[in-house]
Amino acid sequence: MTRTSLLLALGLVPILATSACNAADPAANGAQAAAPAASAATDQRPFTATEVSRFDQPWAMTFLPDGSLLVTEKRGKLQHLDLSSGQKHEITGVPKVAYGGQGGFGDIILHPDFARNHVVYLSYAEEGTLDTRGAAVARATLTLDASGAGQLKDLKVIWRQSPKVSGEGHYGHRLAFGPDGKLWISSSERQKFDPAQDMGGNLGKIVRLNDDGSLPADNPFASQGGVAAQVWSLGHRNILGMAFDANGKLWAHEMGPAGGDELNLIVRGANYGYPVVSNGDHYDGRPIPDHSTRPEFAAPKVTWTPVISPAGFVIYSGTLFPQWKGSGFIGGLSSTSLVRVTFDGDSAREAERFNMGERIREVEQGPDGALWLLEDGSKARLLKLTPKA
């Protein structure tokens, strides 16, 4: 089916992205302050955004080898969308999630050898005892029938946040496989601050595991044993996007407090300073020392004040937008934007910002090189971005 006939079959309606221009305060300690996005008329934008489907509080998506799409919904559903027909089917066998606040069903990714083993990884918030919660990561085998419906089989939890705590915020639980074949997990600090510096737990850390959940012997704190052996880096707040660049470097963004959203280059064993330092302040107005005051902590490569509230992250490798190859794309929640960042070795900067008019929860690259966005909230649109004719 051609692209034109597919659009007609699905009744897709193009919408044009508009531009935004938000200046950021200068960043200290070597971090690149987010540059104001260039202002341009709507008809000068390089892409058209087309609505493909709608979902109820979607959180993440991933493409299957056949070009169809898996989408998680925060309330606890996993949807399979056939993009050629527009048909949507719910996948059964999803674990019970602790829905509420920022908690619920989280990320979904494929095993690097999915074409052979059909293994997927999913993250979610789960209940503990005495009104506590924490993120969990499980692996399972995905089976689909001819209609597009299916189920998760042999589900096994391979990692949990430790300790489980009260509250319903800052789970993180973004997932990625690296070029090393290891599973990387963002474990946010659950709005508890100090655990991000405590190696007795895995809150406020980036975790690195083997694909079965076992511990790699070359992790930086492996000799300490226990939970510390999972940890690759520490001192993080709320990481909602991770991506590897073409050189195998891991980049991750995290939400700051009142100001100070960050894009970080993740280095083995590094401490990123939260809550000791931040380029933002506490919500109640109490100041937090800036990164420049404590050079022993790894400083962000980009900071945003005012914040963009970053969510979702992909580093573009396609050819449909050749001018953007190697750029990173970050969804903005409070900024209702798509933010493009560029990289130069170990440095980064904001290059452009596109006003999407709605909160953007997730960003992915499709098999044909199109960019795909998921809006946040109920009746959220799945948008496909393609170059203007």
Largest sheet: 8 strands, mixed
Distance between the termini: 19 Å
Helix count equals: 2
Strand line-up of the largest beta sheet: 5-6-7-8-12-11-10-9
Query: How much helical structure, as a percent, in the residues?
Result: under 10%
Strand segment count: 27
Q: What does the average pLDDT come to? A: 91
What is the string of helix and strand elements?
Answer: HEEEEEEEEEHEEEEEEEEEEEEEEEEEE
Name the poorly predicted regions: 1-30, 35-41
Question: What proportion of the residues form beta strands (DSSP E)?
Answer: 35-45%
From the spread of the alpha carbons, the general shape counts as globular
Gyration radius, rounded: 20 Å
> Class by helix and strand content?
mainly beta
Structure overview:
Helices cover 3% and strands 42% of the residues. It is mainly beta and 389 residues long. It is globular, with a radius of gyration of 20 Å. The two termini are 19 Å apart. The model is unreliable at 1-30 and 35-41 (pLDDT under 50).
Question: Quick recap of the structure?
Answer:
With 389 residues, this protein is mostly beta strands.
SSE map:
Blueprint: H1 3-10, E1 14-16, E2 18-19, E3 32-33, E4 47-55, E5 58-63, E6 69-73, E7 77-81, E8 88-92, E9 105-110, H2 114-117, E10 119-127, E11 133-144, E12 150-160, E13 172-177, E14 183-187, E15 205-209, E16 231-234, E17 238-244, E18 250-255, E19 261-266, E20 302-304, E21 310-315, E22 328-332, E23 337-344, E24 347-355, E25 360-365, E26 371-375, E27 380-387
Parallel strand pairs: 3-20, 8-12
Antiparallel strand pairs: 1-4, 2-24, 4-27, 5-6, 6-7, 7-8, 9-10, 10-11, 11-12, 13-14, 14-15, 15-16, 17-18, 18-19, 19-20, 21-22, 22-23, 23-24, 25-26, 26-27
